[in-house]
Amino acid sequence: MSLSLQRQIGTTSSFRIPQVLTEARVGGRCGEILGLPFFVPFYFNSLLSFWFDQGFLLLWNIKPYNPDMKFFIDTANLKEIQEAYELGVLDGVTTNPSLMAKEGITGKDNIMRHYKAICDIVDGDVSAEVVSVDLAGMIREGEELVEIDDKIVVKIPMTKEGVKALKYFSGKGIRTNCTLIFSAGQALLAAKAGATYVSPFVGRLDDISTDGIALIEQILTIYRNYGFETQVLAASIRHTMHVIQCAEVGADVMTGPLSVMEALLKHPLTDSGLEKFLADYAKGNS
Ligand code: G3P
Fold first, then answer.
1. Which CATH number describes the domain made up of 70-264?
2. How many whole angstroms from 181 Cα to the centroid of ligand 1?
3. Burial of 166: CB neighbours in 10 Å, binned 0-12, 13-18, 19+
């Protein structure tokens, strides 16, 4: 088979088709030979469970979508985590050494206890970051962190040692979040090493006049091209437009402060509309 023909043939089984066959799944190979599309299914899960190949979706101009966009809160503040949890839309928590220090959490025992307290609040993944920079230290810390709770995801920085640690943890079935991602190349490397999540820092890129959302989109394209299962966790989210733009390009997860989640629900017309509804009700029911 020629190289160019091979390139036209895609494999994956990772996207659902909206409206058409929402619950349907089929895995297979598809592409184009001599201008004619083809699709060969690998398997059928059940009549209501088909997955279609990304190439098939592209051929038919059907856009793939994620079943859900996850909302993580980016803080180590227990009160804020509790508030976000009570809002009912929280899927997880991300922390980092700066956020832990901001809450005055110092010393290994206190840090471990604090992670446990976070895990006790949320139903979902809790990223806990290693502070070692050498492979042996990252492995030791990561293995201790996952002992705290099943919800712990080991957060590893994007360094040479970090990539080796990602590979090690992926081989052990331990979930990881590769942090401090600022380029598509770093994200590709992290995915190849088996990271569960990558965290591109949208706000910090915007801070230096680089388009953070464009990076999210670029990483998503690369992951979809090859069917990487690594999830794109848009981090350093600073305001509501970041969230909306992440949703538009299809980020798997966004992590931001409570203030951003609360800002999403605000609109002056909602406030004035409600005021009028209540005033009208009061007129007739006082
Ligand atoms: O998760 C990473 C995030 O905490 C960084 O956010 O606002 O410090 O750039 P920021």
1. 3.20.20.70
2. 11
3. buried
Our CA angle for 255, 208, 184, nearest 5°, is 60
Q: Is 121 exposed, middle or buried (CB count within 10 Å of its CB: 0-12, 13-18, 19+)?
A: middle
Other C-beta atoms lying within 10 Å of the C-beta of residue 175: 19
In this structure, which residue's CA is closest to atom 8 in ligand 1? 236
| Most informative mutation of 205, 236, 260 for ligand 1 (most atoms within 8 A of CB) | 236
- Over residues 247-267, the pLDDT tens digits come to 999 999 999 999 999 999 999
Q: What is the pLDDT of residue 230?
A: 97
What is the number of other CB atoms lying within 10 angstroms of the CB of residue 117?
A: 13
Residue 155 is a catalytic residue: yes
Domain boundaries, the chain: 3-59, 70-264
Distance from the alpha carbon of residue 170 to the mean position of ligand 1, in angstroms: 25
Task: State if residue 177 touches ligand 1 by the CB under 6 angstroms criterion.
Answer: no
Q: DSSP 3-state assignment of 80?
A: helix
| Share above pLDDT 70 across residues of the chain, in percent, rounded to a whole number | 77
Handedness of CA 260, 85, 229, 176 (dihedral sign): positive
Which residue has better confidence, 36 or 41?
Answer: 36
**Which among 70, 79, 151, 155 is annotated as catalytic?**
155
Torsion-angle region of 149 (φ positive above 0: left; ψ -120 to 50: alpha; else: beta): beta
| C-alpha dist (Å) from residue 21 to 17, 30, 38, 42, 231 | 6, 18, 19, 17, 23
**CB of 204 sitting under 6 A from ligand 1:** yes
Among candidate residues 169, 222, 227, the one with its CA nearest the CA of residue 200: 222
> What atom in ligand 1 is closest to the CA of residue 207?
9
